[in-house]
Every structure is written in structure tokens, then in C-alpha cells.
Amino acid sequence: MPPSSLASSTTAGKSHFEREGYAIFHHVLDADLMAEARQHVDWLLQKNPDTRPEQLHHFLMTDDPFWVRLISDDRLLDIAEQFIGPHLALFASHYICKRPFDGQAVLWHQDGTYWPLAPMEAVTLWLAIDDADAENGCMRVLPRSQHLRLLKPEELIQQDDGKNVLGSGIDPAQIDETKIVGIVLKAGEVSVHHPNVIHGSTANTSPRWRRGLTIRYIPASTRIITEEVFPSAFMLRGRAVKNVNAYHPWPKYVAGKHMPFRDWLEWNQKCENVNREYREVLTGQ
Ligand SMILES: O=C(O)CCC(=O)C(=O)O
User: Fold this and answer.
1) 10-281 has CATH 3.40.190.10 classification
2) Is the shortest distance between the CB of 191 and ligand 1 below 6 Å?
């Protein structure tokens, strides 16, 4: 798409985000890359046969070049940059994929409830890998809830029956369903949401998959408060801030170990350059 139309759609997205707590970006990633992402989900499920597809978490992918290639795509970083500035790191990301007729609901929650971040400056991009709509369990948000305080985990209702993704959530009696908006996306499109915004999704009742990748970006000045280097901490763009976080080196593609992908040769070259640039904040360098 021409740069001018990208610019106008991103500007509209940002003002919408500031008012409503979320925004939608069209025409972001291409169909070939989304086909590779679907292959990647299949590949991960084969490698982790006891893991449900809603739970393909970052710790399964720290050394996974295709995943890092996807979350560091410039088209995604250009969007993240508009919300949290030019110095970007990854805090967390995982696939939340719902099988036909079987995919589970995600209970109402605010992401910041669960995050060890200081300050709570972060933005989530949710990438649709399949078309997502009400029938296959698209994300749903409560507009303008970004102004509410973050609830504590102990204020949530426990529902750990193995039939939903989080095991706990905000009491549905507190949610005015008439105000809820469904985030309908085509594959390759992206929604953006604020850490305080209340959101969730229903089960997949359709004969279609609903695959998505949630990606949480932070400014390089935000600290991830953990003892160990967080499994999905990667420096992505701009300047790192010394003594804030340590990050993993970008993983190179190794034949026989990783899923092959189209541009792995250029990717390996890019990893060398990036790992050289950020060597002072990388683990094991
Ligand atoms: O994928 C979903 O249905 C929910 C996503 C979500 O809760 C998130 O990305 O924070």
C-alpha cells in the first residue's frame, strides 16, 4: 500500500486509541507471511503436542528465529513506535489460537494486572493470522476502560476449570455487555490496546480456526522486574538504556533445528548486525 494511505490510517488509529483505549490498523502484514505464521503454529503444536493452541507461550520460543522475525517486523514496529516512542523492546508475546468448535474463551481482564513492569508503559499489538470475527472468537473490548484502575489478581474471580484461557477474570456482572465492541479483523490486520483496557473473547463456535499472535512492546526505559532475563525480552529498535533490562540475542536460523522460512538468509545477516549493535545489553555476549 502507498505510504500516504498508511500514514493516514495510522494517525486515525492513534487518536482513536487515545479516546477509546484501542485502535485497528488495516493492511499491515502480507498474505505470504501470514501463511508462514500458520505453518509456524502447526510446527509448534507438533513440537509441543501436550500444549493447547491457546497457550503457545513465549518461553517455548526464546530460541525461535521465525517468531523473533515476526515480532520484529518493521511494519509492526512502525505502529508500536507511534504509541510508545522510537526505542522499542519486546516484553512478551504468544500465540492464542482457537481450534474449530473447541477454542476456549479468554475471560474479561486487564493485561497490566499480570505484568511485572515499572512503569506500566506498554502497548499490545494483536495480529490476526486468520480472519477473526464474532463466530470464531475475535477479541472484544470495553471502550474507554483504559481510564479505570488496574485490578489486583486477588480481586478477580477464580474459574480454573481448564475450560478458559486465563483461569481467572473480572466478574462478568461488572461488565456492561451493551457497550462491548468486537474487534473484527482480516488476516494480516492488527489491533492495538492499552494495558488497562478491559477485554476478553468468547469460545470458537465456528468450523474455522482463529489464530492470533499477541505482542507486548515496551519502551526501552521500562523495567521488566524479574530475577532472570525474561524469556521474551528482546531489544528491537532505537537505543537501549543501560542497567534497565538485559535482553536475549536475536536467534539465527539453523537448518534441522528451526522451522525454515522465506528470508532466513537475510535474517541471519540481520541477527549479526543487531546483536553487534546491542551487545552491551545482551545476555551471554
Ligand atoms: O486472543 C484473545 O482472544 C485475547 C487476547 C488478549 O487477551 C490479549 O492479547 O491481551
Assistant:
1) no
2) no
